[in-house]
Every structure is written in structure tokens, then in C-alpha cells.
Amino acid sequence: MVKLMGLETENKEIETNLREVARGLLKDKKVDVIIGYKKGTLPLLSQPIIIDKEEDVDKLIWNNMCYVNLAKYLVPRVPKFVDSERGNLKVGVVSKGCVGRALIHLASENKINLDEIKIIGIPCNGVVNKQRIEMEIGEKEILEVSVSGNKVIVKGKDFEKEFHYDEYMNELCKGCKIRKPPIVSKAPDLCVGECEEYAKIVDEFTDIEEFDSKTAEEKWENITEALSVCTRCYACREACPMCYCNLCFVDQNKPVWFGKTTDLPDIIVYHLIRAMHMAGRCVACGTCSLVCPMGIDLNIINRKLEKIVKERFDFTSGLDPDILPPMVDFKMEDAQEFMLEED
Amino acid sequence: MTEKILVKKDVEKFYDELQKDFKFYAPIKVKGNIHYQKVSKFEEIETDFLNSKVPPKDVLFPQKETIFEYKYEGKDVIIEERKDLEDNILIFGVRPCDAYSFKLLEDFFASGDFQDDVFLKKRENTTIIGLGCNTPRQSCF
User: Fold this and answer.
1) Contacts 24+ apart (CB under 8 A), B66-74
2) d(Cα A234, Cα A274) in Å, to the nearest integer?
3) Greatest distance between any 2 Cα atoms in chain B
4) In this complex, do A135 and B32 lie within 8 Å of one another by their Cβ atoms?
5) How many CA atoms lie within 13 A of A88 on its CB side?
6) Are A140 and B30 in contact (CB < 8 Å)?
7) Which residues are A24's β-sheet partners?
8) Among B28, B135, B140, B141, which would you mutate to test the A interface (most chain A Cβ atoms within 10 Å of its Cβ)?
9) Which of residues A83 and A191 earns the better pLDDT score?
10) Choosing a second label site near A262 at 20 to 30 A (CA), which of A2, A55, A204, B93?
11) Which residues of B lie closer than 8 Å to A, measured between beta carbons?
């Protein structure tokens, strides 16, 4: 990937345009509040921010550390944006492509009313692979992170290290085909800022090519090895916009369906079943992997399922709020070779 | 209370002696992260780290633990208590913040009408060797 501008310049441009759009929306009262990102408390981090005044627009930032999928803040589990006088507030969401997709997908599941939101599209240039950078720096405190040209520069008390952004980008961002939120034809005013019409998404799934070429035994080895350090903190679940169940399957205890311990079988069952629940719904934002404190690469499992869904149902999540996701729909032409034998 | 100073180069000998009588837990590197686990070789022990991902309280208060076992013999219930609560445990290289956490746990499990023996007996038989902080993080307290 060739970058024509340096990262810093690109981010600044995106940030400036974003603030302009945000300012306009609040000024014209097209939205009541805007959810975006602000500077984090530690280097390599960002934080979500909710603003409702024009003068706070300059707190909105865009950089390659805006990991969190903001669509999460609109799911039913999160307290609604409601005002005693005005009722349901209209919410503007700063959306990179995957955030926009998540919002549209949640609308297809009737969890969001598209009339109550505005998707503030930005042309995302990816996020850094925070876990990988932290692993490489090791047991030294990171004090400062900056981007320059095509590099991420990480500084500490006695060290300075450069990482090539193209290589140390989040794996999912490297092959991302949907960098701006999709335009929804039936709701032309939904998306403001930078959005795009997607006719057909062609995804070669090159990021899981290596994994896919392994045998079933090797794949199992790989996945269970990677998952073995899971501490069941559920950060992955909490960060995922598609995990909005009031009572998660794994928390249920009348009866106890699945174990909650850190024994490997319990860990595997949790992650594989959550992945199954994501089939046809995951928008590959990578937030689950980025928030994992143990640095587990959860993307591989979800991307593999995304590939299977694409092959079997020719479906990409989060493009059209009127198309039902495959796992809640049925078509006569669906292949059933796993259940029925051909005569 | 007596104070003695041990030279760094003799810590390995110290370990060799102690691990004969204690279940020796220390910070080791597992898949790029620091964990407090039982060590079998002195070389495994890490002392140059910020802090572990899972705190050392995990040694005495793990996420999953057998409290006791039981079985039926006819109509009788036979209870088998834990047999390892009297084992000597040593946790090496604990940061001051984590060391204080053990005090908080003791206060909690010893308070009220019921004493949590599973934790308290283990704590009684546990020695904690601390590790001072020359370069705490910005977020440390």
C-alpha cells in the first residue's frame, strides 16, 4: 500500500473535516449529541467522548488509535440517550467503515432506529495493532506515541522504536474493503461526511489464507493454543457491538449451560460459541482482539466464519438494513449437504 | 525482626534451598505476558518486568478451585476435605501494590461469622518475597 501523504497529514485532514461536519450538525440541530473519540489517558489509547455543544467539537480526534467500535454505545444494553423533555435524542456517530456497517447491521436486527442516528462518515486509514507493538516493546513503559510519514514512533524512558504502519496496522485493516460507511439507498440523509456506495464487495480473505491452508488438526492446535491464555474477562464480548444480549449464554446459571472457568475446554466452548453467534453478523472491526488484555488474536476465527458465510450465502454484513442476516433467514436454494444426502 | 542482605549472585542458591521445602511461585514469561506460576528452574524467573497480567493473588485465590469433594455411600454423604492446605507456599517477586492486596484479602476472608479456611490456611502457610519498584509506571499507585 502506497501512501501519498504522510500519516500525520492524512489524519489531520480527516480530523479537520470531521470537526467541520460535527460542528454543522450540532449548529443546525440535526443531532442532539455526537459520539466520537478523544485523546486517551495513556499513549497508544483513545477514549470515547459524547459531546452536545459546538464548542466541544475540537475535542473530537482522529488518529490511528481509535480502536473502539462506537456502535456499541447504541445497543439496547447501553442506557439510551434520552432527555426528559425531548425524549429520544438524535445521536451522531463518528463512523469509520466498520462502525457504519455495525450500525446498519444493528438496524437490520431492529436494534437501532436509523431515523434516530446520523452516521458521520470518515475515510478510515486503519488502526495500529496495539497488542503487537506492546509485545515487541516488552516490559518497558511506553511514554509517547506519534506518527510521522509512514511510521509509528514509540518512545520510552531509554528507548525509541519505529514501526512501519503498513506492517503494524491491525491485520483486519490491512485488507479492509469498506473504509467508509456504506450509503443506505432508502435513507439518503443517514450518512453525512464521507460515505460510499458499495455495489459488490470482493474479499479474497487473504489475511486468513495461511490459517486456511492448514489441516483441521493444525487449525485446532492453533486456535486452542492461542485461546489457552484467556482469563474470561469478557472484554471481547463487552466491546463487540453485536453482543447485546441482556443475559449472555455463558452467564446463564439456571441451568448452567457452559462452564465459566479458565479450564481450556470451558474457554474453547465460550469463544467458539460466541463466534457462532457472530456468523453473518461480525463486521470485522477487530475491536475484540484489540481490547483483549492477553493479546489473543480472535479475528482469525471470526474471519473464517465470515468467509464461510460469504461462500454459502453471498452475504456481507452491515451493507443493507433491509436484508435479513443469513442466520435468521432461510432460502430454498440454501445448500443443505451437511444434513441431506443427494440422491 | 532481623534484617539480612543477600548478594544477587547467591539468589540462585537461595532458590535451590527454598524450593526443596516450598511450592515456589515466581513471575515467569508465558506467551509474552508475565504470570505468577510454579517454577521448576531458577532461569525461568523474571525480575525485569513492569507487572503481571494476572495478579499474584491468583496463586492463593485462583479463578477456579475445589473447595471439597463429596460422594454418596448408600444414604451417607462422605466429604473429602482439601489435603494440600498445609503445604508451604512461597511467592517470589511480588510488587508492593500486589503484596498489600493479600492483606486486604485476609481482612475480608477472616471477617464476619465465617472464616474462609481454604484461603486463610493457605495464607498462613505462604511466605511472600517482595520486589521493589525502581521505575514504576505513570499509572502505578
Assistant:
1) B67/B118
2) 11
3) 62
4) yes
5) 12
6) no
7) none
8) B135
9) A191
10) B93
11) 30-34, 46, 48-50, 53-54, 63-64, 135, 137-139
Torsion on CA atoms A184, A185, A186, A187, rounded to nearest 10? 50
A57 φ, ψ (degrees, to nearest 5):
-60, -30
Across the interface, whether the CB atoms of B137 and A157 are under 8 A apart is answered: no
The C-alpha atoms of residue A206 and residue A175 are separated, in whole angstroms, by 8
CA angle (A40, B35, B95) in 5-degree steps: 75
Task: List C-alpha distances in Å: A191 to A126, A184, A242, A339.
Answer: 20, 8, 21, 42
Q: Which residue of A has its CA nearest to B52?
A: A139
The CA distances from residue A209 to A202, A206, A213, A342, B58, in Å, are 15, 5, 6, 30, 38
* Grid cell at residue A234: 469478557
Which cell numbers in the block locate residue A27?
449548529
Return the exposure string of B5-42: e unless at least 16 CB atoms fall within 10 Å of the residue's CB, then b: eeeeeeeeeebeeebeebbbbbbbebebbbbbbebeee
Instruction: Report the relative pairing of strands B23-30 and B89-94 from DSSP bridges.
Output: parallel
Nearest to A51 by CA among A32, A69, A66: A32
Q: Residue A243: pLDDT band by 50, 70, 90 thresholds?
A: very high
CA distance B119 to B105: 9
Q: What would the pLDDT profile of B33-45 be if each residue is shown by its tens digit? A: 899 999 999 999 9
Q: How far is B2 from chain A (nearest CA, A)?
A: 33
All residues of chain B having their beta carbon less than 8 Å from the beta carbon of residue A158 are none
Instruction: Name A256's Cβ contacts closer than 8 Å, sequence gap at least 6.
Output: none
Q: Which residues of B touch A232 (CB under 8 A)?
A: 63
Nearest residue of A to residue B46 by CA position? A139
Indicate the residue of B48, B63, B139 with minimum beta-carbon distance to A261.
B63
Helices (H), chain A: 7-27, 97-108, 130-137, 165-168, 171-174, 209-212, 216-227, 235-239, 264-278, 287-291, 299-313
Q: Closest residue of A to B137, CA-based?
A: A141
Q: What is the pTM of this model?
A: 0.91
Which burial class, exposed, middle or buried, applies to A143 when counting CB atoms under 10 A from its CB (0-12, 13-18, 19+)?
middle
ipTM of the complex: 0.86
- In DSSP terms, B26 is beta-bridged to B37
Looking at chain B, which residue has its C-alpha nearest residue A131?
A: B32
Contact A293 B32 (CB under 8 A): no
Question: Which one of A229, A234, A292 would you mutate to disrupt binding with B, by most B Cβ within 10 Å of its Cβ?
Answer: A229
